[in-house]
Amino acid sequence: MLLWQDSFRERLAAGGRYVIHFDNRDVGRTTCCPPGEPNYDRPGNPRTHRLTSG
Length: 54
Prior knowledge:
This protein is mainly alpha-helical.
């Protein structure tokens, strides 16, 4: 959504849409961990989210 002009987002909102503007330019760059840590995808981790088919 960084590429969308403010005027476009304003028109969406004016038309009754909810517009959320995420600024993800620094996603993943503020934390440095050794490879494998933290182990978010370990089996049994309640925060693990997986997409499964049907």
